[in-house]
Amino acid sequence: MTLDEVSKAIIEQLQQDGRRSYAAIGKVVGLSEAAVRQRVQRLVDSGVMQVVAVTDPLELGFARQAMVGIKVTGTLDPVADALAELQEVDYVVITAGSYDLLVEVVAESDEHLLELISDSIRTIPGVVATETFMYLRLRKQTYSWGVR
């Protein structure tokens, strides 16, 4: 999907405040509230963006959040797809460097994290090694990088 300047401006407005009203966005970008609503719906339907509440899992009662670096043998896509199916995984990225994949996981306890890594992640065919980086405190999380 090619984005025009108005769509980009709408996205930037929502990156600043995902609860901003369509009427307020319309005033900034020069469209009616209905036109903004339609554009936002098209952007969501096309997969360009999603509007969600971003939380800190550690503040919501989850004991552990971690990034897991994964080394893979063979094709990466099937492993990435299998990881994406795990309920505890909220982020999967294919990378260049020391690890083939990085996944972010959220666990209810240390025991749950151990089970997730040992019984779920390491048993996926193609996974040859993992390294876990446990989060101690979230200092910054932002999604306001704008559009190009």
Gist of the model:
This is Lrp/AsnC family transcriptional regulator. With 148 residues, the chain is of the alpha+beta class. 36% of the residues lie in helices and 20% in strands.
Which labels suit this protein?
4-stranded antiparallel beta sheet, 4 strands, 148 residues, alpha+beta, 5 helices
Report on this structure:
By secondary structure, the chain is α+β, with helices and mostly antiparallel strands. It is 36% helix and 20% strand. It is built from 5 helices and 4 strands. It has helices at 5-16, 22-29, 33-45, 76-84, 110-121; strands at residues 64-72, 89-94, 101-107, 127-134. Strands 2-3-1-4 form a 4-stranded antiparallel sheet. Helix 2 (22-29) crosses helix 3. The chain is elongated. The mean pLDDT is 92.
Q: How do the helices and strands line up, and which of them pair or pack?
A:
Layout: H1 5-16, H2 22-29, H3 33-45, E1 64-72, H4 76-84, E2 89-94, E3 101-107, H5 110-121, E4 127-134
Antiparallel strand pairs: 1-3, 1-4, 2-3
Helix pairs in contact: 1-2, 2-3
